[in-house]
Amino acid sequence: MMWLSGGFIFRRGTSVYHRLDPRVKLLNSVLMFATTLLVRSLYELAGVLAFMIAVAAVAKVLRRVSRTMLFTAGFSVFIFVVNFIFQRNLETSLLYAARFVAIVVSTSLFFITASPDELEQVMKTFRLPRDVVFAFVTAVRFIPVMFLDTIQIMDAQKSRGLELEKGNALKRVRNMIPVLIPLVVNSVVRSGELAEAMESRAYGASQKPTSLVEYKARTADRAVAAAAVILFALAAYSFYFVFPARIL
Amino acid sequence: MHENGVRALDGVSLKIGSAETVAIVGENGAGKTTLVKHVTGLLKPAAGDVVVDGQNTRTTSTAQLSRKVGVAFQNPDHQLFSENVEQEMSFALRNFGFAPELVEQRVRWGLELFGLEEYRKSSPLVLSGGEKKRLTLACILAWDPEVVILDEPTVGQDSIQKEKLAGTIRMLTSSGKTVVVVSHDIEFLWPMQPRVVVMKAGRVLGDGPAAGLMQDRALLDSARVAQPQLVEFFEHLGARPGAPFADPLEARRWAEGTSK
Q1: What ipTM describes this predicted complex?
Q2: Chain A residue with minimum CA distance to B70
Q3: Which of A94, A129, A221, B19 is at a distance of 20 to 30 A from B185, taking alpha carbons?
């Protein structure tokens, strides 16, 4: 599970895609997300997913995106089963299940290629309140820390004879209590300590703190953004006017 | 072996006997905690084998191994979760299926040993850092494992508690237990005169009795391990004619009044 969930965590990279302006990366992900909502058949969705995989290959994060897809597979199966029970339509159920995977991959592509610092800058460009930006970025930044905490807590409890994988489903859930309680307590304590540390370093003292980074779009960024918008328009046009709708 | 291809441990070959006290020292990232996690089966070796009391850790679960190997991890906040100290201490005992009267006996023994009786009904989460650390040690010793591994046991402990801890380690060794201490606290380790394993970048640089190894300045410098102050003092003193003691251990024994 830990290995799979690692597919959502940012790691520094040197690919062309990593070097793009974070606003362009966000635009790409938003457009890919929107495209997955526009598709009306499995063929179209397969095309969109293939495009996302190509982007992942350019960004050299193909293995991590495959982890993301595997991670979502369980939820995707659940979506398929629920839809199939209520709609009795195999193709629609498959479309919804696969669409969920595509949606997660589109957002994951942004989060695994944009650092928390870049995310912060992007949010600032939308003029969101500083506290909101800080809270969101801090939450993202602490995801890997919480994963590490979880692993260490599981190690500590397993060393005291706790068998996490033992027993039926209910027993396994109960086995997680010794892991979840320290995790939650640590997170609460850490957030309190972080708040004190931030305040002691003058957080909130100025209405307009100095920003060390100012993003300026390069020609390559503008070209990628323009290409993304054109591709999106073409995809939307073809879904509705070129190919007849197969589903819905 | 890490996901990125880095070898966390490389060419490590150690044999630790029963009733032995072993100190594992080295700078941060040297592989000390990784090494002890292999002993408990939490990590499996990519190559080679780790055998604990005849059991290969590849084929034995951590839960099974933990009956023989007790580990007190560095951060006590990573294991405390129960409603009160008593329940926290009995957690592992209940996991191992101890009889209720034995659980009660072991809990009482552990609380007394570490001076935690007054907190028996308190939440472990409200204890101070040092008390939490002592509680985790008590939790491990409660089920009487053959091998006791202590990861940075002196962090947050005052000098009196450190002395008590050193006494507990001596008591464990004299009762036939194997004790492995991972620590940066050389001043705590040196008086116990353990076998010392010096690690750097996943490799064992040196392995031998503390008396000799702690005088090997070049080795310690290369592993970025501090020399005990008394040993360092004697290095300077030894160069002078008519030095009153032959070695730092003799001086310590004299100071403690245990010299013959």
Answers
A1: 0.74
A2: A159
A3: B19
